[in-house]
Amino acid sequence: MRFALLALCCACAGCASPEQHTGAIIPPSAEKLETAPATLTRAQADAVRTGLKHAVQDPNTAKFGGMAAARSTKDPNVLFVCGYLGARNADGGFDGMRPYIGGLGLDQNRVSVFVVSDIAANAKEAETTKDVCRHRYGIDMAGVNETDAPPAPPAKRRK
Q: pTM for this structure?
């Protein structure tokens, strides 16, 4: 587990920006990592949600959108996760769903620990976060819903 977390921190770190208060902004020009698409188990998705709750000011207001993952081909115990999160801000307002990036470290018992790398704070950072997900981790956020809610069924026609 220690090795997986160390590898995870090294993969997500090294690009920290002092102006970003929620995590490291990773420039889109950062080196592309070798990854393969991955599907999160329910326990892994729960670990992501738990990690995200620890990263926001008011965890009780956290709303989770869709998420997608990619597995490191160099270390199968590391998953990179991109998705959407919403929570109340310091002023008590809700800023809407914002993209995030993080890493999930797995140990031999498949226990997961999620480390948040970045939560976009504004529209410009949101675009950068999505670009990093696509270019660095191979996760296309265009295929990730901002909400977990299933699409509404088509309206019934009246006869």
A: 0.76
Separation of alpha carbons 69 and 143, rounded Å: 12
The model's pLDDT over 47-106, given as tens digits with 9 standing for 90+, comes to 999 999 999 989 999 999 999 999 999 998 999 999 999 998 888 888 889 999 999 998
Residue 129's pLDDT band, with cuts at 50, 70 and 90, is: very high
- 3-state secondary structure string, the chain? CHHHHHHHHHHHCCCCCCCCCCCCCCCCCCCCCCEEEECCCHHHHHHHHHHHHHHCCCHHHCEEEEEEEEEECCCCCEEEEEEEEECECCCCCECCCEEEEEEEEECCCCCEEEEEEEECCCHHHHHHHHHHHHHHHCCCHHHCCCCCCCCCCCCCCCC
Write the single-letter amino acid at 85.
L
